[in-house]
Design a protein that fits this description.
single chain, alpha+beta, 7-stranded mixed β-sheet, 5-stranded mixed β-sheet, 16 helices, 26 strands, 33% helix, globular, binds glycine
């Protein structure tokens, strides 16, 4: 499906919409989740907790969004978290230089090059303002952090540009109170903020966005215990190699030098398995090792988890080997001891992170799930992600059927996110549930009044079975504990 189809669905059915949309001065890059979007996002995070946090015995924290200036002196963001920009000398439009040159030349232009090199490329390709055709000024660097002033004294502080800084500054206390030992994975779901030059494509590039980040602290000498790695040893990662994607087992990827060590290979497997369970089309999924000029300033080695959509390949997870860069920086600036005992010696742990963009993951899952077939629009979400889990309808809106259907709805909604609908034709009611991904619908008809059975209809196959009302809840429980749609 195309971006425009997902946008229409999102706006018309209450998944997400632009923030402050009734005002003309609403800034770009801020979006609100509606009722179905909140439910989908919550289920996505529930799945992340199940498939990563609980599976790997991680701990989770929730840090503040405003952090002190010193944090970003130590992390390097004050100095290095900047994008190259250029302004039109005629209409004053400001743009990201790398994207502008990329659009003009059709080539990938790195985000991190010397300012003079961008200036040279602009001249070489005679790049002009895309809005008015005017000439461009000189390239400069723009820091993307939002500065805030705290309290009446107006102390400088910043909205965090990545959630993981809370994990790094909390590390000494966490390690102590949790009686940690390496490897020590810490997770966090929360908001981050980046003053993007050109926010665009709804949930894809936002200024205020959700991240679900995992920071694994480890000793590079020992990295990972053998038993854990055994779980994924033969699991095949989809690695972008050359022009295509090659499936390489976790062990072969390390032995061929495609991935630096077993710990990184193990966590890449976990994240790939997570997206498989979240319903991403694995034929349009790849893990790509980044080149020197593509990596963030703190990363020694980096992989992007990418998914192909109608907008091209989208980065969903940045997997960065950050070495001891962050803990050393915080130790230097705060004077806090970040060393821990491991293998009989004191070390500053290294970090490997899985930094997931939640909003853009939700967009990609919606686009991959959205199908137009048999004269209907259907969102084939995995049941575990469905915002509404069961629709309940009376076949017709008369006699005893609505009363009986409401009775079933009232009972199911104690355990499931249920939706009751008695308006319009039954076919139309099914279509409305299909479009928002409701995996099953229960219909009460005249037989129900005689034999206490209802029909259960599967969203994907549209097949129906009759089922005893007392068995309904356990059948739905099986569905939501499993991973695939109800196969009737
Ligand atoms: N923590 C890495 C990132 O935000 O991209």
């Amino acid at each position: 499906m195309r971006y425009e189809d997902v946008m229409r669905l999102a706006l018309e059915r209450g998944f997400y919409a632009p923030s402050c949309e009734i005002y003309s001065d609403a800034p770009a890059g801020f979006w609100d989740y509606g009722p179905l979007g909140v439910a989908l996002r919550n289920r996505f995070i529930d799945l992340w907790r199940r498939e990563l946090i609980r599976r790997d015995d991680m701990i989770e924290i929730d840090g503040s969004q405003i952090m002190s200036k010193s944090v970003f002196v130590a992390s390097g963001h004050l100095e290095s978290f900047a994008d190259p920009i250029v302004s039109c000398m005629k209409c004053r439009l400001t743009l990201r230089v790398d994207r502008l040159i990329s659009e003009k030349t059709g080539k990938i232009i790195p985000e991190r090059m010397a300012v003079e090199d961008y200036d040279r490329l602009l001249k070489e390709h005679d790049v002009r303002c895309p809005r008015c055709g005017g000439g461009l000024g000189g390239v400069s660097m723009f820091n993307m952090m939002f500065k805030v002033r705290v309290g009446a004294g107006g102390e400088d502080a910043y909205l965090r540009p990545e959630t993981c800084q809370s994990i790094f500054v909390d590390f000494p206390r966490l390690f102590k109170v949790m009686r940690g030992k390496l490897p020590f994975p810490v997770a966090q779901f929360g908001k981050s903020f980046r003053n993007e030059i050109s926010p665009r494509q709804s949930l894809i590039r936002l200024r205020e966005f959700y991240q679900a980040e995992i920071e694994v602290f480890f000793n590079p000498k020992y990295a990972i215990d053998a038993q854990k790695f055994e779980e994924v040893r033969d699991y095949r990662l989809k690695l972008a190699l050359g022009e295509g994607v090659e499936e390489v087992s976790c062990i072969d990827a390390v032995e061929r030098g495609l991935i630096p060590n077993r710990l990184i290979s193990y966590y890449l497997a976990l994240i790939q398995q997570f997206y498989e369970k979240a319903g991403v089309d694995m034929g349009r999924f790849r893990v790509r090792r980044l080149g020197e000029e593509e990596k963030a300033f703190y990363a020694e080695t980096a992989f992007d988890v990418e998914v192909e959509t109608s907008l091209g390949w989208i980065e969903l997870v940045a997997c960065n080997y950050r070495t001891d860069y962050d803990l050393k920086g915080h130790s230097r600036v705060s004077k806090e001891d970040m060393e821990v005992m491991d293998g009989g010696e004191k070390i500053i742990p290294h970090v490997f992170e899985l930094s997931m963009g939640v909003d853009r993951s939700i967009y990609c899952i919606m686009e991959h799930a959205y199908h137009r077939e048999d004269g209907r629009d259907v969102l084939k979400l995995k049941p575990a992600l469905a915002p509404i889990q069961v629709g309940v309808f009376p076949l017709v809106n008369r006699d005893e059927l609505p009363r009986k259907a409401r009775e079933i709805y009232n009972s199911l909604k104690k355990d499931f996110q249920a939706f009751y609908d008695e308006s319009g034709s039954i076919g139309r009611r099914y279509r409305r549930q299909d479009e928002i991904g409701v995996p099953v619908c229960v219909t009460v008809d005249y037989d129900t009044l005689r034999d206490d059975t209802v029909t259960l209809r599967d969203r994907d196959s549209m097949k129906q079975i009759r089922i005893d009302i007392p068995k309904l809840a356990s059948r739905l429980n099986d569905l939501y504990r499993g991973e695939d749609a109800l196969q009737l």
